[in-house]
């Protein structure tokens, strides 16, 4: 018996083409897809912009206590920062051939759900060329800043065991208001000043503030300012010091043969102030746990301070 094999019917070429989307349908589908992709990209860009704005920098007033490096190119200033809430602040400057305008870039508050202690630290910015004779001012206020030349920093020859210089303001001083407070009692905006901090693994903390007697000393011997290079002018008569003259009110004492005074003498805060022919110094030991350096130890540190 012969079997007849019947093959299943195949759709014609016309049938397959009938199942393909029409050109109009495909164009519409592509348009819808393009709209969806564009919308997704817009959402992503908006999110990125929002995130960027959360961390964008805003201008803030810079402290008038500014240090100028020995080569005249780097300016350093103390800044306050709340690490868990904002990006780290930074010093910034705008330069022309005649002026340098500096300010502080603060990160916008990004997270208020967390609370943490604020800290004070030093931030630096390197100029394209040495400051030289150019005017340094605060960008937001236009106020002239007289920087302290690092070449004029006095040497501290003795520190108690375990103490070392730090760019972070010790927490003890942070509790007392940080570097922006009116410390060390003798500084002002006209005469350049700079505070250095020293700490060990614990407390107490130690600060040495030096205020130059003459603003002209800031341009003395800076790179790019050789035409004005000169020794600092002598201090005013009220700042002239010897072993018999002492304008500092407090318990009288002597530091390197100059009249000095113990301004504060408590278990938590001891301060010695004195002046020589170039600078006025304030040496402070502070510890809220009532363990400030003893007067004798503080005086030993003071007697080791020497002009460069």
Would you mind describing this structure in some detail?
The protein has 308 residues and is of the alpha+beta class. It has one domain (57-306). Helix content is 17%, strand content 30%. It is built from four helices and 17 strands. A seven-stranded antiparallel beta sheet has the order 10-11-12-16-15-14-13. Strands 1, 4, 5 and 7 form a four-stranded mixed beta sheet that branches. Strands 6-3-2-8 form a four-stranded mixed beta sheet, with no helix packed on it. A hairpin with a 3-residue loop joins strand 4 and strand 5 (99-107). The longest helix is centred in the first third of the chain and has 32 residues, at 23-54. It is elongated, with a radius of gyration of 33 Å. The N and C termini lie far apart (123 Å). Residues 43-56, 175-186 and 215-247 have low confidence and may be disordered.
Overall geometry: elongated
**Low-confidence parts:** 43-56, 175-186, 215-247
Structural class determined from secondary elements: alpha+beta
Order of helices and strands: HHEEEEEEEEEEHEEEEEEHE
Task: Please report the total strand number as a whole number.
Answer: 17
Residue-averaged pLDDT: 73
Please give the alpha-carbon distance between the first and last residues: 123 Å
